[in-house]
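does this look right to u?? zinc ion version
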Amino acid sequence: MILVDTHSHIYLNEFDNDREQVIKNAFNNNVTKILLPNIDSSSVVPLLKLVKDYPYNFFPMIGLHPTSVKSNYLEELENVELWLKKEKFYAIGETGIDLYWDKTFKNQQIDAFEKQIELAIKHDLPVVIHARNSFEMIYDIVKNYKNSKLRGVFHCFTGDIEQAEKIISLGFKLGIGGIVTFKNSGLDNVVQKIDLKNIILETDSPYLSPAPKRGKRNESANIIYIAEKIAQLQNVTINKVAEETTQNAKEIFNIKIP
Ligand SMILES: [Zn+2]
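got this back:
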């Protein structure tokens, strides 16, 4: 069984003291392929260092996170383009719109998102979307590209069944993480109704640890709890969840998994 964590920030300093151990834990729990979404120009170097150290296990993305969109965002996007010329990346991400914390740069966030969609199309890469308090806005933008090559994932999906169906109709995947294990999240009822072919697994570590580790620092090994919960909801084996979601991740990110 191979499990893929399609969204981990293990390069962040939250893991500086025990990163090797955290990687070992992941491998010991069959999580041997891990995608690394970028945040901004300050995170690229530590992110790529991990990829150099473990080229068969870590797969880098490049992009500008919506909460890092400030007045200098055009410079940040130039930096993204420079990196795209220098290294191989597996996705543009994470990008999107986040109106939960701060709406100051809302227009810049929208512009940065659209520019990163164009980059994804130009480089034939999937796009990893962070949507927080912005689903309809994002959906309206992405649906304009419905007949293009644009593909990707709505990462950390927490919406209702209608939103899930909208995402699926765009040909996008749902990134399902720890929230599916939370009591009263309602996400369990949604995931129960979605075909496994539309789901990929993610931790978003160090954030959003699943039950029974809720509240603690999250890590890729915890994918196992998310896979178990989905297996239970779908009334299939965890092997089946692993097989299908790994296949989905492999296809969307074009990564080699033996
Ligand atoms: Zn993230």
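Residues 7, 9, 37, 94, 204 surround zinc ion (CB under 6 Å). idk if thats expected tbh
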